[in-house]
Design brief:
CATH topology of chain A: Pnp Oxidase, Chain A
CATH superfamily of chain A: Electron Transport, Fmn-binding Protein, Chain A
Shape of chain A: globular
Largest sheet of chain A: 7 strands, antiparallel
GO molecular function (chains A, B): FMN binding; oxidoreductase activity, acting on the CH-NH group of donors, NAD or NADP as acceptor
Strand order of the largest sheet of chain A: 4-3-7-10-11-6-5
Organism (chains A, B): Gillisia limnaea (strain DSM 15749 / LMG 21470 / R-8282)
Radius of gyration of chain A: 19 Å
Number of helices of chain A: 6
CATH class of chain A: Mainly Beta
Number of strands of chain A: 13
Largest interface: A-B, 117 and 118 residues
Keywords (chains A, B): Flavoprotein, FMN
Pfam family, one (chains A, B): Flavin_Reduct
Structural class of chain A: alpha+beta
Protein name (chains A, B): FMN-binding split barrel domain-containing protein
Strand content of chain A: 35-45%
Oligomer: homodimer
Chain lengths: ~210, ~210
């Protein structure tokens, strides 16, 4: 096996290290965060760091890196308190990636990428119309990660929308039915297919599939 | 589209809400965390919350939920400072899921699941032999998330091992070549296939694939 120690990693070329360390923790979620400023300027940006924080209350988090953060997303969230999280689907990967381009401040990525703004139930921030799973979120708190000067933003899920056909009777959303993408590293877009879903594991009992009959 | 508000979500049955909110943020990484206590008792447990924190220094994080945390993983990490993160591959999903069963404290999940311990380069914690991407990690810090009493653990990546053939010349690890899994919700295991990888996005320029020729 190839082996890198921490000092090997430290001495790597910067871009090589970014590619390596961003891909070694496994697949990441693929979402578009959309916001609107107080002066009605919209903004949408690809994020690979959105993750589950808790179910009750329903909360998610994401990491902001000061060096790579889309400039307007965090400013708008702090200014207005609201943002939306929209799944990236297999048909949207080029548009989603294009949102990472450094546009001028007064240009909305919505206009530049073909992604469409959608407003639902009087929520302040725009959703991405093309997304088939989307959430309206409210800023709750932030935690400064001292080790590398990044920020974990924690938010409440206030609205959740999805295409009805992707939900199982027990609440679970089957993401491959939605065409949701996973991100490999910084710039790889992968389409997952469900292999299996298992019932609660118990000591000494064989794992049972939700789908396969005994 | 199906729509849940925050009060709808709050009033859901607990298990239904767990399934729904754990799947709505998108795919999660699929890893086994392995530890060893001071008294040489090993432990391995499935985690879907490992995520990238930063590349320089190379760090990852994961969320511990007090109600669902495997009891020994965190105790061993605090006691010894070390743990390993091992990718779950397509051939290991049943064994990985079985590690979530509540075994007695003096039973190692390694013995119960067919996952094998492996010790590399004198690192204190065991790796999972079957994993083709694995990291030796050192505890750095923890952040108490006040909103739901969970903990973000931040750790340094001190060793990184992987099968050489999965690395691109620019450092990136192609996870579908490794057979790495993504997790859908709490108990769904999906196998991603790379659709494309894109070069750095620039305003007004068409997105360029790493693979497709113009």
């Amino acid at each position: 096996m190839k082996h890198y120690t921490n000092s090997d990693i430290k001495n790597l070329d910067k871009l090589f290290r970014l590619n390596l360390i961003n891909s070694c923790t496994g697949y990441k979620s693929a979402n578009l965060l959309a916001t609107k400023s107080k002066s009605d300027q919209t903004n949408v940006a690809v994020f690979n760091s959105v993750h589950h924080i808790g179910s009750n209350p329903a909360m998610l988090g994401f990491i902001l890196r000061p060096t790579t953060v889309p400039r307007n997303t965090f400013k708008n969230i702090k200014e207005t308190g609201f943002f939306t999280v929209n799944h990236i689907h297999e048909t949207m990967i080029e548009q989603a990636h294009q949102t990472a381009a450094k546009y001028e401040n007064d240009i909305s990525e919505f206009n530049q990428t073909g992604l469409e703004e959608e407003y639902l139930d009087d929520f302040f921030a725009p959703y991405v119309k093309q997304s088939s799973v989307k959430m309206g979120c409210r800023y709750l708190n932030e935690y400064h990660i001292l080790e590398n000067d990044t920020i974990l933003v924690v938010a409440a899920i206030e609205h959740l929308y999805f295409e009805e056909g992707i939900q199982a009777p027990d609440g679970w959303l089957r993401l491959d039915d939605a065409g949701t993408i996973a991100i490999n590293g910084l710039d790889g877009y992968a389409l997952p297919v469900l292999l299996d879903r298992f019932h609660y594991a118990r000591p000494g009992k064989e794992i049972k599939s939700f789908f396969k009959k005994e």
